[in-house]
């Protein structure tokens, strides 16, 4: 029998920023699809969370991505080495942080003709909830599958397009499963660094494909997290679209960053760009340090340009730039959460990845 729960008190204690107290409880209307998943045993989306394993540490890490054109989040998570596996301190130890872990990876079919109107955002929310239900469920097209112990949500997903609904659903399930949003972790990480700068006013840049920018996911999340901190002023987001994301090089990203500076200069915006979110991944062997170095070379060239006795680009971009990789930050948060909850598998053996491409619902 379906139960109607008008208001669910969602504790967003997982959303923390340095110097801040844990977020206050937020009232969230339970989405109809979430209500079906939790309470309507006649619904195809119903998930019996009462059968969830009590000890979830040995379960796989679940990742879904609404963008089928990239495996960045999976790749970053599986290869992450940002922590000492013994102490848990943030220091690489030449051992993969998720060594021995198993992964369930789901990619949805991306829609290159997506429209980000009210219906389009509803579609994103539905997809995010359904993908989560697949990861935490025990059924797939082949029959039985393992359930996930944590969910990483990649794609243009915000609190308003599914993230809060997934949190509410998982909290009500009492399964111990938590969700991490890639967009949200990217913005949180950027703002944590920005707020340490001795700069009062600044802009941030976003290098992403056309659909990501059109979705407004990063722009909205910046304002949402600022509101969490009680900051009423907005931070301008300077967008730089990449129409094609295939066969990208670090040089291509640097050229896009240079174009961003030119646009910012031409628009006469008063606040310098101090951070850039890079939501696309170049091909080949590279590191985040390689991208940061390429961007820094662009900055040095522009800030040294002298026009009529002035250095106009020094007001366009800061001398040092914060470069953010959202997938990397989401993978790091995944490690922190699992370690804090004692849910790392600590399994001796190779990683295993099962890739699903459709929902049996």
Write the layout of secondary structure elements.
Layout: E1 8-10, E2 26-28, H1 32-39, E3 61-65, H2 72-79, E4 102-107, H3 118-136, E5 139-140, E6 143-144, E7 150-154, H4 159-173, E8 178-181, H5 182-194, E9 203-209, H6 210-215, H7 217-228, E10 237-242, H8 250-266, E11 273-278, H9 288-303, E12 317-324, H10 326-340, E13 352-356
Parallel strand pairs: 3-4, 3-7, 4-13, 7-8, 9-10, 9-11, 11-12
Antiparallel strand pairs: 1-2, 5-6
Helix pairs in contact: 1-4, 2-10, 3-4, 5-7, 5-10, 8-9
Describe the structure.
It is a single chain. The radius of gyration is 21 Å and the shape is globular. The chain is 36% helix and 17% strand. Helix 5 packs across helix 10 (326-340). The two termini are 20 Å apart. The chain has ten helices and 13 strands. The chain folds into two domains: 8-182 and 328-356, Rossmann fold; 186-326, Rossmann fold (3-Layer(aba) Sandwich), CATH 3.40.50.
């Amino acid at each position: 029998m379906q139960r109607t729960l008008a208001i669910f008190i969602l504790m967003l204690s997982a959303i923390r920023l340095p110097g801040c107290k844990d977020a206050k409880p937020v009232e969230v209307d339970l989405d109809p699809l979430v209500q079906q998943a939790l309470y309507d045993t006649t619904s195809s989306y119903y998930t019996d969370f009462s059968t969830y394993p009590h000890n979830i540490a040995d379960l796989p890490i679940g990742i879904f991505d609404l963008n089928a054109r990239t495996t960045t989040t999976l790749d970053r998570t599986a290869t992450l080495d940002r922590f000492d596996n013994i102490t848990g301190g943030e220091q690489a130890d030449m051992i993969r942080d998720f060594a021995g872990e198993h992964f369930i990876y789901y990619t949805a079919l991306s829609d290159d003709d997506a429209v980000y109107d009210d219906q389009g955002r509803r579609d994103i929310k539905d997809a995010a909830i359904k993908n989560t239900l697949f990861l935490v469920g025990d059924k797939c097209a082949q029959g039985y599958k393992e359930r996930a112990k944590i969910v990483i949500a990649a794609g243009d997903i915000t609190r308003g397009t599914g993230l809060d609904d997934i949190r509410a659903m998982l909290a009500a399930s009492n399964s111990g499963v938590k969700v991490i949003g890639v967009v949200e972790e990217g913005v949180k990480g950027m703002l944590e660094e920005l707020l340490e700068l001795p700069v009062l006013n600044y802009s941030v840049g976003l290098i992403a494909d056309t659909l990501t920018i059109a979705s407004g996911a990063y722009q909205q999340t910046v304002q949402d997290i600022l509101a969490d901190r009680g900051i009423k002023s907005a931070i301008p987001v300077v967008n730089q679209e990449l129409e094609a994301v295939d066969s990208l090089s670090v040089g291509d990203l640097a050229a896009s960053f240079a174009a961003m500076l030119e646009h910012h200069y031409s628009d006469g915006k008063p606040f310098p760009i101090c951070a850039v979110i890079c939501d696309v991944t170049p091909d080949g062997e590279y590191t985040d340090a390689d991208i940061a170095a390429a961007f820094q070379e662009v900055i040095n060239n522009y800030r040294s340009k002298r026009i009529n006795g002035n250095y106009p680009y020094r007001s366009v971009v800061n001398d040092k730039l914060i470069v953010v990789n959202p997938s990397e930050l989401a993978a790091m948060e995944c490690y922190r959460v699992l370690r804090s909850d004692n849910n790392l598998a600590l399994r001796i053996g190779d990683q295993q990845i099962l890739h699903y491409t459709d929902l049996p619902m």
